[in-house]
């Protein structure tokens, strides 16, 4: 919210400064051609559109809290069902063992669009690997990463990552987009490190 308010204030202040300069050069009691009014109106509209766009971006990527497993499952179904490759970093993939999430992952695996990083292989990942998924385990690292995230459109421009954490208010999921937040780069590097190590 703070970032949105900051950006919106900057847009509004910038326009107010330009408007102030204009009325300093051409005071209100002076005659002005009609195109000046059209330009002023268009600039006000452009500023409103910029602020509205920032608000929509904020709403889209703001943290979302889910208090029931059904709503979490619904979010994850929507998240992984889009186009492009999906990279999942999980402890044991327990959340993905129920349909329709499992069915979506099967389809992704068949299209060679699924990477799963987890501690140990299990019945689900064995099935997904047989269908074409890339399964990477970190059981030999002697460390269990606390990170849990899912990247969609992995390897593409505009890729996004969803990160979930448990809080007192419920399960909080936050989204980050490639090139807009450093957490995306960290998540992508972690997947790349493990997949490269698996190939050694």
Characteristic key phrases:
200 residues, alpha/beta, Endonuclease, Chain A, 7-stranded mixed beta sheet, 6 helices
If you had to describe this structure to a student in words, what would you say it looks like?
- The protein has 200 residues and is α/β, with parallel strands linked by helices.
- It has six helices and seven strands, in the order H-H-E-H-E-H-E-H-E-E-E-E-H.
- Strand 2, helix 4 and strand 3 form a beta-alpha-beta unit.
- The longest helix has 28 residues.
- The protein is elongated and about 80 Å long.
Level-1 CATH class name of the largest domain: Alpha Beta
Compressed to H and E, one letter per element, the order equals: HHEHEHEHEEEEH
Number of helices: 6
> What's the overall geometry?
elongated
Set out the fold topology.
Layout: H1 2-25, H2 34-61, E1 64-66, H3 69-80, E2 86-89, H4 101-110, E3 114-118, H5 123-131, E4 134-137, E5 149-152, E6 160-167, E7 170-177, H6 182-198
Parallel strand pairs: 2-3, 3-4
Antiparallel strand pairs: 1-7, 2-5, 5-6, 6-7
Helix pairs in contact: 1-2, 4-5
Give a concise summary.
It is built from six helices and seven strands. With 200 residues, the chain is of the alpha/beta class.
